[in-house]
Design goal:
By secondary structure, this protein is of the alpha/beta class. The protein has one domain: 3-Layer(aba) Sandwich (Rossmann fold). The chain is 30% helix and 22% strand. Strands 1-2-4-3-5-6-7-8-9 form a nine-stranded mixed beta sheet, sandwiched between helices. Strand 3, helix 2 and strand 4 form a beta-alpha-beta unit.
Length: 323
Protein backbone atom coordinates (compact mmCIF):
# COMPACT_ATOMS: atom_id res chain seq x y z
CA UNK A 1 0.00 0.00 0.00
CA UNK A 2 1.35 3.45 -0.83
CA UNK A 3 2.03 5.71 2.18
CA UNK A 4 -0.53 8.39 1.35
CA UNK A 5 -3.34 5.82 1.34
CA UNK A 6 -3.10 5.30 5.08
CA UNK A 7 -3.91 8.95 5.66
CA UNK A 8 -6.71 9.29 3.15
CA UNK A 9 -8.77 6.46 4.61
CA UNK A 10 -10.05 9.02 7.12
CA UNK A 11 -12.78 11.54 6.31
CA UNK A 12 -11.69 15.10 6.94
CA UNK A 13 -15.06 16.13 8.38
CA UNK A 14 -17.68 14.15 10.29
CA UNK A 15 -20.19 12.20 8.22
CA UNK A 16 -23.93 12.54 8.75
CA UNK A 17 -26.45 9.71 8.99
CA UNK A 18 -27.04 7.63 5.87
CA UNK A 19 -30.31 8.72 4.16
CA UNK A 20 -32.79 6.02 3.16
CA UNK A 21 -34.22 5.57 -0.31
CA UNK A 22 -31.40 6.93 -2.45
CA UNK A 23 -29.37 4.68 -4.75
CA UNK A 24 -27.15 6.24 -7.46
CA UNK A 25 -26.90 2.88 -9.25
CA UNK A 26 -30.63 2.54 -9.99
CA UNK A 27 -31.32 3.46 -13.63
CA UNK A 28 -34.26 4.76 -15.63
CA UNK A 29 -35.05 3.38 -19.08
CA UNK A 30 -32.17 3.82 -21.54
CA UNK A 31 -32.35 6.77 -23.89
CA UNK A 32 -30.87 7.33 -27.32
CA UNK A 33 -27.44 8.26 -28.68
CA UNK A 34 -26.86 10.75 -31.47
CA UNK A 35 -23.73 11.85 -33.35
CA UNK A 36 -23.19 15.56 -34.02
CA UNK A 37 -20.39 17.86 -35.12
CA UNK A 38 -19.62 21.38 -33.97
CA UNK A 39 -18.04 23.40 -36.77
CA UNK A 40 -15.89 26.22 -35.46
CA UNK A 41 -15.40 28.49 -38.48
CA UNK A 42 -13.12 30.90 -36.63
CA UNK A 43 -10.60 28.15 -35.94
CA UNK A 44 -11.39 26.04 -39.03
CA UNK A 45 -11.99 23.16 -36.64
CA UNK A 46 -14.63 20.42 -36.49
CA UNK A 47 -15.39 18.92 -33.06
CA UNK A 48 -17.23 15.57 -33.22
CA UNK A 49 -19.70 14.82 -30.42
CA UNK A 50 -21.45 11.73 -29.16
CA UNK A 51 -24.53 12.75 -27.17
CA UNK A 52 -26.23 10.33 -24.78
CA UNK A 53 -29.81 11.48 -24.28
CA UNK A 54 -32.06 10.45 -21.38
CA UNK A 55 -35.36 8.69 -21.92
CA UNK A 56 -37.46 11.71 -20.93
CA UNK A 57 -37.76 14.68 -23.30
CA UNK A 58 -37.83 17.41 -20.66
CA UNK A 59 -34.80 19.72 -20.28
CA UNK A 60 -31.99 17.89 -18.48
CA UNK A 61 -28.73 18.95 -16.85
CA UNK A 62 -25.71 18.55 -19.12
CA UNK A 63 -22.42 16.77 -18.42
CA UNK A 64 -19.51 17.30 -20.82
CA UNK A 65 -16.77 14.66 -21.05
CA UNK A 66 -13.27 15.13 -22.47
CA UNK A 67 -11.31 12.03 -23.51
CA UNK A 68 -7.69 11.25 -22.76
CA UNK A 69 -4.75 11.55 -25.13
CA UNK A 70 -5.35 9.35 -28.17
CA UNK A 71 -8.98 8.73 -27.26
CA UNK A 72 -12.29 9.61 -28.86
CA UNK A 73 -15.94 10.40 -28.22
CA UNK A 74 -16.61 6.66 -28.18
CA UNK A 75 -14.40 6.09 -25.13
CA UNK A 76 -15.65 5.53 -21.56
CA UNK A 77 -19.14 4.82 -22.90
CA UNK A 78 -20.07 3.16 -19.59
CA UNK A 79 -20.17 6.68 -18.11
CA UNK A 80 -22.33 8.20 -20.83
CA UNK A 81 -24.83 5.34 -20.75
CA UNK A 82 -25.16 5.45 -16.97
CA UNK A 83 -25.37 9.23 -16.64
CA UNK A 84 -27.99 9.50 -19.38
CA UNK A 85 -30.04 6.73 -17.75
CA UNK A 86 -29.93 8.86 -14.61
CA UNK A 87 -31.46 11.80 -16.44
CA UNK A 88 -28.45 13.71 -17.79
CA UNK A 89 -27.54 14.73 -21.30
CA UNK A 90 -23.97 13.43 -21.53
CA UNK A 91 -21.98 15.15 -24.27
CA UNK A 92 -18.71 13.38 -25.14
CA UNK A 93 -16.29 15.61 -27.06
CA UNK A 94 -13.60 14.49 -29.49
CA UNK A 95 -10.56 16.78 -29.71
CA UNK A 96 -8.83 16.75 -33.12
CA UNK A 97 -5.06 16.73 -32.81
CA UNK A 98 -5.03 14.68 -29.62
CA UNK A 99 -7.54 11.96 -30.53
CA UNK A 100 -7.33 8.49 -32.09
CA UNK A 101 -6.08 9.88 -35.40
CA UNK A 102 -2.76 10.59 -33.68
CA UNK A 103 -1.80 6.92 -33.47
CA UNK A 104 -4.11 4.91 -35.76
CA UNK A 105 -2.09 5.44 -38.94
CA UNK A 106 1.31 5.30 -37.25
CA UNK A 107 3.54 2.24 -37.32
CA UNK A 108 3.31 0.28 -34.05
CA UNK A 109 6.81 1.29 -33.03
CA UNK A 110 6.08 4.98 -33.57
CA UNK A 111 2.75 5.24 -31.75
CA UNK A 112 4.10 6.14 -28.32
CA UNK A 113 6.23 8.94 -29.75
CA UNK A 114 3.24 10.25 -31.71
CA UNK A 115 1.16 10.30 -28.56
CA UNK A 116 3.84 12.11 -26.59
CA UNK A 117 4.09 14.75 -29.30
CA UNK A 118 0.30 15.21 -29.28
CA UNK A 119 0.28 15.99 -25.57
CA UNK A 120 1.50 19.49 -26.38
CA UNK A 121 0.63 22.91 -25.03
CA UNK A 122 -0.83 23.76 -28.44
CA UNK A 123 -3.27 20.85 -28.21
CA UNK A 124 -4.07 21.82 -24.62
CA UNK A 125 -5.06 25.28 -25.87
CA UNK A 126 -7.20 23.76 -28.61
CA UNK A 127 -8.95 21.56 -26.08
CA UNK A 128 -9.78 24.31 -23.60
CA UNK A 129 -11.16 26.40 -26.47
CA UNK A 130 -13.27 23.44 -27.63
CA UNK A 131 -15.27 23.50 -24.39
CA UNK A 132 -16.81 27.00 -24.63
CA UNK A 133 -17.24 26.50 -28.37
CA UNK A 134 -19.31 23.37 -27.73
CA UNK A 135 -21.32 25.08 -25.00
CA UNK A 136 -22.10 27.98 -27.35
CA UNK A 137 -23.28 25.54 -30.02
CA UNK A 138 -25.36 23.55 -27.54
CA UNK A 139 -27.08 26.80 -26.58
CA UNK A 140 -27.88 27.53 -30.23
CA UNK A 141 -29.13 23.99 -30.87
CA UNK A 142 -31.27 24.09 -27.72
CA UNK A 143 -33.00 27.22 -29.07
CA UNK A 144 -33.48 25.81 -32.59
CA UNK A 145 -36.94 24.16 -32.88
CA UNK A 146 -35.75 22.07 -35.84
CA UNK A 147 -32.77 20.52 -34.05
CA UNK A 148 -32.84 17.12 -32.24
CA UNK A 149 -31.59 18.85 -29.08
CA UNK A 150 -34.28 21.54 -29.11
CA UNK A 151 -35.43 22.24 -25.54
CA UNK A 152 -33.60 19.11 -24.29
CA UNK A 153 -30.83 20.94 -22.42
CA UNK A 154 -30.81 22.63 -19.03
CA UNK A 155 -27.76 24.80 -19.62
CA UNK A 156 -28.03 26.48 -16.23
CA UNK A 157 -26.75 23.20 -14.78
CA UNK A 158 -23.61 22.07 -16.60
CA UNK A 159 -20.96 19.69 -15.28
CA UNK A 160 -17.55 18.93 -16.75
CA UNK A 161 -15.56 15.72 -16.54
CA UNK A 162 -12.67 14.07 -18.33
CA UNK A 163 -9.93 11.48 -18.04
CA UNK A 164 -6.15 12.06 -18.15
CA UNK A 165 -5.59 14.81 -20.76
CA UNK A 166 -9.33 15.25 -20.43
CA UNK A 167 -8.87 15.77 -16.69
CA UNK A 168 -6.30 18.48 -17.42
CA UNK A 169 -8.84 20.03 -19.79
CA UNK A 170 -11.53 19.79 -17.11
CA UNK A 171 -9.34 21.36 -14.44
CA UNK A 172 -8.44 24.29 -16.70
CA UNK A 173 -12.04 25.21 -17.57
CA UNK A 174 -13.39 24.80 -14.04
CA UNK A 175 -11.15 26.93 -11.86
CA UNK A 176 -7.47 25.97 -12.05
CA UNK A 177 -5.21 29.02 -12.08
CA UNK A 178 -2.37 29.43 -14.56
CA UNK A 179 0.30 31.04 -12.39
CA UNK A 180 0.03 34.82 -12.07
CA UNK A 181 -2.56 34.87 -14.87
CA UNK A 182 -5.19 33.32 -12.62
CA UNK A 183 -8.04 31.08 -13.85
CA UNK A 184 -7.49 32.04 -17.48
CA UNK A 185 -9.65 29.37 -19.10
CA UNK A 186 -12.49 29.05 -16.58
CA UNK A 187 -15.96 28.96 -18.08
CA UNK A 188 -18.53 30.23 -15.55
CA UNK A 189 -21.24 28.06 -17.11
CA UNK A 190 -19.62 25.00 -15.54
CA UNK A 191 -21.12 24.45 -12.10
CA UNK A 192 -19.30 21.27 -10.97
CA UNK A 193 -16.25 19.33 -12.17
CA UNK A 194 -15.04 15.74 -11.94
CA UNK A 195 -11.44 15.17 -13.15
CA UNK A 196 -10.41 11.49 -13.45
CA UNK A 197 -6.65 10.87 -13.18
CA UNK A 198 -6.08 14.49 -12.21
CA UNK A 199 -2.73 16.23 -12.66
CA UNK A 200 -0.82 18.81 -10.61
CA UNK A 201 0.57 21.84 -12.48
CA UNK A 202 3.81 21.51 -14.44
CA UNK A 203 4.89 24.95 -13.27
CA UNK A 204 4.20 26.48 -9.87
CA UNK A 205 2.72 24.99 -6.73
CA UNK A 206 -0.52 23.02 -6.38
CA UNK A 207 -1.68 25.61 -3.83
CA UNK A 208 -1.35 28.40 -6.38
CA UNK A 209 -3.04 26.32 -9.08
CA UNK A 210 -5.99 25.00 -7.08
CA UNK A 211 -6.33 27.22 -4.02
CA UNK A 212 -9.01 29.44 -5.56
CA UNK A 213 -11.28 26.79 -7.13
CA UNK A 214 -14.79 27.98 -6.31
CA UNK A 215 -17.08 25.22 -7.59
CA UNK A 216 -17.54 21.64 -6.35
CA UNK A 217 -14.83 19.22 -7.49
CA UNK A 218 -14.60 15.45 -7.19
CA UNK A 219 -11.24 13.86 -7.97
CA UNK A 220 -10.85 10.20 -8.96
CA UNK A 221 -7.57 8.31 -9.30
CA UNK A 222 -5.93 5.02 -8.33
CA UNK A 223 -2.99 3.85 -6.26
CA UNK A 224 -1.30 2.65 -9.49
CA UNK A 225 -2.48 5.45 -11.76
CA UNK A 226 0.73 6.06 -13.72
CA UNK A 227 0.89 7.52 -17.23
CA UNK A 228 3.18 5.87 -19.78
CA UNK A 229 3.70 9.07 -21.74
CA UNK A 230 4.65 11.22 -18.74
CA UNK A 231 7.07 9.85 -16.17
CA UNK A 232 6.20 12.61 -13.69
CA UNK A 233 2.49 11.69 -13.55
CA UNK A 234 2.66 9.20 -10.70
CA UNK A 235 0.00 8.35 -8.11
CA UNK A 236 1.94 10.39 -5.55
CA UNK A 237 1.92 13.43 -7.82
CA UNK A 238 -1.80 13.07 -8.52
CA UNK A 239 -2.41 12.99 -4.77
CA UNK A 240 -1.05 16.55 -4.47
CA UNK A 241 -4.19 18.06 -5.98
CA UNK A 242 -6.79 17.37 -3.29
CA UNK A 243 -4.88 18.92 -0.34
CA UNK A 244 -4.41 22.08 -2.41
CA UNK A 245 -8.14 22.58 -3.00
CA UNK A 246 -9.95 24.98 -0.67
CA UNK A 247 -12.38 23.35 1.78
CA UNK A 248 -16.07 23.06 0.97
CA UNK A 249 -17.71 20.69 -1.56
CA UNK A 250 -14.47 18.90 -2.48
CA UNK A 251 -14.13 15.10 -2.73
CA UNK A 252 -11.45 12.55 -3.58
CA UNK A 253 -11.65 8.85 -4.46
CA UNK A 254 -8.47 6.74 -4.69
CA UNK A 255 -9.21 3.22 -5.90
CA UNK A 256 -6.87 0.53 -4.57
CA UNK A 257 -4.73 -1.08 -7.30
CA UNK A 258 -6.50 0.95 -10.01
CA UNK A 259 -4.32 1.72 -12.99
CA UNK A 260 -4.78 4.49 -15.54
CA UNK A 261 -7.15 2.31 -17.56
CA UNK A 262 -9.63 1.91 -14.67
CA UNK A 263 -11.59 4.90 -16.03
CA UNK A 264 -11.80 3.38 -19.52
CA UNK A 265 -13.44 0.23 -20.83
CA UNK A 266 -10.38 -1.77 -21.81
CA UNK A 267 -6.80 -2.32 -20.64
CA UNK A 268 -4.02 -0.03 -21.85
CA UNK A 269 -0.52 -1.05 -22.95
CA UNK A 270 1.65 -1.61 -19.91
CA UNK A 271 -1.18 -2.62 -17.55
CA UNK A 272 -0.09 -5.10 -14.89
CA UNK A 273 -3.10 -5.44 -12.60
CA UNK A 274 -6.26 -7.45 -13.43
CA UNK A 275 -9.27 -5.21 -13.97
CA UNK A 276 -11.53 -4.95 -10.93
CA UNK A 277 -15.28 -4.77 -11.81
CA UNK A 278 -16.00 -2.88 -8.59
CA UNK A 279 -13.93 0.06 -9.80
CA UNK A 280 -16.55 0.94 -12.41
CA UNK A 281 -19.32 0.41 -9.87
CA UNK A 282 -17.67 2.86 -7.48
CA UNK A 283 -16.96 5.38 -10.24
CA UNK A 284 -20.57 5.30 -11.42
CA UNK A 285 -22.10 5.54 -7.94
CA UNK A 286 -19.94 8.40 -6.70
CA UNK A 287 -20.00 10.40 -9.94
CA UNK A 288 -23.79 10.09 -10.13
CA UNK A 289 -24.33 11.20 -6.56
CA UNK A 290 -22.00 14.16 -7.21
CA UNK A 291 -23.97 15.27 -10.28
CA UNK A 292 -27.27 14.69 -8.46
CA UNK A 293 -26.11 16.82 -5.53
CA UNK A 294 -24.61 19.71 -7.50
CA UNK A 295 -26.40 19.76 -10.86
CA UNK A 296 -29.87 18.52 -9.89
CA UNK A 297 -29.42 20.12 -6.47
CA UNK A 298 -31.01 17.07 -4.86
CA UNK A 299 -30.75 17.35 -1.05
CA UNK A 300 -31.13 13.58 -0.60
CA UNK A 301 -28.20 12.95 -2.94
CA UNK A 302 -26.22 15.57 -1.06
CA UNK A 303 -26.98 13.86 2.22
CA UNK A 304 -25.95 10.48 0.76
CA UNK A 305 -22.69 11.90 -0.56
CA UNK A 306 -21.83 13.50 2.78
CA UNK A 307 -22.75 10.46 4.88
CA UNK A 308 -21.03 7.11 5.35
CA UNK A 309 -23.00 5.72 2.39
CA UNK A 310 -20.22 6.07 -0.24
CA UNK A 311 -18.19 3.46 1.64
CA UNK A 312 -20.92 0.93 0.82
CA UNK A 313 -19.83 0.88 -2.83
CA UNK A 314 -16.10 0.83 -2.08
CA UNK A 315 -13.71 -1.94 -1.13
CA UNK A 316 -11.80 -1.93 2.13
CA UNK A 317 -8.56 -0.45 0.81
CA UNK A 318 -10.17 2.21 -1.37
CA UNK A 319 -9.72 5.73 -0.04
CA UNK A 320 -12.55 8.25 0.19
CA UNK A 321 -12.41 11.67 1.76
CA UNK A 322 -14.11 15.05 1.56
CA UNK A 323 -13.66 18.54 2.92
Amino acid sequence: MRPFLLVTLLLTIPAIAVPAGYDPLVLDSPGTTIELTVNDAKRDRAIPLRVYLPHKNSPAAVVLFSHGLGGSKEGSAFLGKHWSARGYVAVFLQHPGSDTDVWKEAAPGARLQKLKAAGSFQNFLLRVQDVPTVLDQLTAWNDDPAHPLASRLDLDHVGMSGHSFGAITTQAVSGQSAGAIGPRFTDPRIKAALPMSQSPPNIGSPADAFGSVKIPWMLMTGTKDDAMIAANLTPERRALVFPALPPGRKYELILHNAEHSAFTERPLPGDKEPRNPNHHRAILALSTSFWDAYLKEDPVAQAWLDSEAPRSVLEELDSWRRK
